[in-house]
Design goal:
With 263 residues, the chain is an alpha/beta fold. The chain has helices spanning 15-24, 39-42, 45-54, 79-97, 113-129, 141-150, 162-168, 174-178, 208-216, 237-261, and strands spanning 3-6, 29-33, 58-63, 102-105, 132-136, 156-161, 182-186, 223-225. Strand 1 (3-6), helix 1 (15-24) and strand 2 (29-33) form a beta-alpha-beta unit. It starts with a strand and ends with a helix.
């Protein structure tokens, strides 16, 4: 199975040195964002794409830009919502330019016909360019459910974030309920209280066996880790990457076991 990690994983290392370390650790995929606020650490999207191609690393999904306090405006009438729509359409065109097939979107707020119209415009552009729009489960489960209940579109897909599920809505089984829409993963762990984006044997509380069981029954997607070392800076970047890769390999083995056992 393909395995990936966030291009930025918590270390302020020059982009080319970082991609070298990612490849050396055994990852063949990355995920990144087109949000310009990350250019200082990652470089421009175009420069990242060049690096990925140079080192033979596949970009499996592109996160659309977002500013969380503004996101509810997407569902409301007015210029702010129109601006969010315009930005999303522009970034879908960017994804097409670089032949990226999955984009990930954060959506927060209260479902409305105004927002539905905007979302359909984005989805229609995705159809034109054959791009999947993967809505990520974040801390707004009712909106997530409303979107998939009200909109039937071939390009409306799902990005599963394991850490968000563990913090914000443990009782929602996203992979069971929306697994047929799954095209992207954001894998990381936490203590069940804060969105830590960690992978740690000490404080993580996610049931990875359950996730492996769910994934074993779905179409195969890259095991992409959206994880960062924010607290243990004494750990070398190569050591951190090796630990995440080991976790990915173990998850793959669990998935293969469940497939062969036909549980």
């Amino acid at each position: 199975m393909d395995k990936g990690i966030s291009f930025y994983f918590g270390y302020d290392i020059p982009p080319e040195e970082r991609i070298e370390l990612i490849k050396k650790a055994g990852f063949n995929c990355v995920i990144t964002s087109c949000d310009k606020k990350f250019d200082a650490e990652n470089g421009s999207l175009s420069s990242q794409i060049k690096l990925f191609k140079k080192y033979g690393i596949r970009l499996t999904s592109l996160h659309l830009s977002y500013n969380t306090p503004e996101l509810p405006c997407f569902w409301e009438k007015g210029r702010d919502g129109d601006r969010l729509l315009k930005t999303a359409l522009y970034e879908i065109k960017l994804a097409h330019k670089y032949n990226i097939k999955n984009v990930v979107m954060h959506l927060i707020g209260t479902y409305s016909l105004e927002g539905e119209k905007r979302l359909l415009k984005i989805l229609d552009l995705c159809s034109k360019f054959d791009i999947n729009l993967a809505v990520e489960n974040i801390d707004c489960p009712h909106l997530f459910a409303d979107i998939f209940r009200n909109i039937q579109h071939e390009k409306l897909k799902f990005c599963y974030d394991s850490g968000h599920n563990n913090v914000f809505d443990k009782n929602t089984d996203y992979l069971l309920n929306y697994g047929d829409k799954l095209v992207a993963l954001h894998l990381h762990d936490n203590n069940g209280k804060a969105d830590e984006h960690s992978i740690t044997p000490l404080s993580g509380t996610i049931d990875w066996d359950k996730i492996a069981l769910r994934l074993s029954k779905l179409n195969e997607v890259s095991l992409d880790y959206e994880t960062m070392n924010r607290t243990h800076k004494e750990i070398f970047a190569s050591t951190f990457l090796a630990f995440v890769k080991e976790h990915a390999d173990n998850l793959e083995n669990k998935i293969i076991h469940y497939r062969s056992a036909k549980v």
